[in-house]
Amino acid sequence: xxxxxxxxxxxxxxxxxxxxxxxxxxxxxxxxxxxxxxxxxxxxxxxxxxxxxxxxxxxxxxxxxxxxxxxxxxxxxxxxxxxxxxxxxxxxxxxxxxxxxxxxxxxxxxxxxxxxxxxxxxxxxxxxxxxxxxxxxxxxxxxxxxxxxxxxxxxxxxxxxxxxxxxxxxxxxxxxxxxxxxxxxxxxxxxxxxxxxxxxxxxxxxxxxxxxxxxxxxxxxxxxxxxxxxxxxxxxxxxxxxxxxxxxxxxxxxxxxxxxxxxxxxxxxxxxxxxxxxxxxxxxxxxxxxxxxxxxxxxxxxxxxxxxxxxxxxxxxxxxxxxxxxxxxxxxxxxxxxxxxxxxxxxxxxxxxxxxxxxxxxxxxxxxxxxxxxxxxxxxxxxxxxxxxxxxxxxxxxxxxxxxxxxxxxxxxxxxxxxxxxxxxxxxxxxxxxxxxxxxxxxxxxxxxxxxxxxxxxxxxxxxxxxxxxxxxxxxxxxxxxxxxxxxxxxxxxxxxxxxxxxxxxxxxxxxxxxxxxxxxxxxxxxxxxxxxxxxxxxxxxxxxxxxxxxxxxxxxxxxxxxxxxxxxxxxxxxxxxxxxxxxxxxx
Length: 588
Hints:
With about 600 residues, this protein is α/β, with parallel strands linked by helices.
């Protein structure tokens, strides 16, 4: 049975043949050009819509002039990599890349050398924007790639800050500010260079962004998100959330989720610009700065994840801030429980009094492959359909299939499949992986990898994850990635990694079950050593916060496949003891 989105098709769907830049910052707009586009939540600095358009056009021209002559051919797509946490400069750089008609490859700011090197190796950027705090990691990654024979000298590197960067290494490098790329502002500055000779269909189908998804096995893969994907999803999101009646005159977003993640990029960088609503940027989530920003700037819309709600439910600092301006909190990237939702509502409504009585908390669902949140529960259904992630946005179709791809009826549990304007073009230069993630046939039904059931009204309820991915605070962790690293440790003979859900932290935590080498005398010391060693090799979200647990043998099938379900049953029966102290020594 195929379900159709119940949302009406909005009247303001973007026309075909428009690049992301023209959709987000059109030359003609109903919004006041002098109104704030972004506000620095720490310093109060403002960048207006007019300033944003001016600077992004100038940067786009400069990027265009750096493009290799053969850019645009198959295998030579013009990729620009951005390696930075949230800053006021990030929207300028991202939209400058879009104005230049290039592809933005966005890197997790917690990546270490090997992970960054993989994304550079895979994406082959001709230009990199690097945040000053991450220069050492970049230089290590470039050195690694150079040793492999890659032509790293051809890659141009610019600082993401308004000032250049000089490295401290013996072979000193100087990276000029991205602002040195600004062209003079003239009337003939173009947008989407090289697109004039393309058809509308070709422009729609052109990649705009590469966010990397871990997939189910092995290395992360670049998800090719097109101009049409972004334009439609931002318009559909805006229409969907307008059930809350958002307004440029009274609303503000808080942009605390990372822009390099598809959820943060679409929902709190792109969508606010499309809606004409200011967004207050924070470099990262810290309770005090988050609460201060909500109170000081009278934030009305919070796009969050469950750990932020956990803070709102329990942190003592909440009582010292006026959060009564909040009217909508939307959570995604990880499941949201009823207990936590009610704790937050009860606390904030009691604290905020009459002003906070309209506050509602809902949740959304999506993947990098669906251009972020493409399903959400509208405000009017929060109480009636609690527990559901809602329904997809307008023009999407969805269904549930069994293991053989056969359609199931309402109420039956199976894999959620979707098709519509947000579904990715495919995985970057990976035809095999792309084919495997769609049902056979020309209909392009995307297999989400999530087990769900759909009720008679079309509302989706997530049951469990089919894929082996672990989601730590919304970030994907592939068990195979960690396993391939762990087996290189001299004290590990075999290993399997699973995710365990922590009620305390409202997220999954990666846990490793290890078969220790026979010469290990002290298991507790060995497991702590392994956890500490892994923490130095991987990004923060991949650390083994669920513990390192010794086990006699990894359960496997006759074909050699790890039976993770047995390990999950084991984790339920035998909670981690002192051997899992890594989960307590690493901060969440």
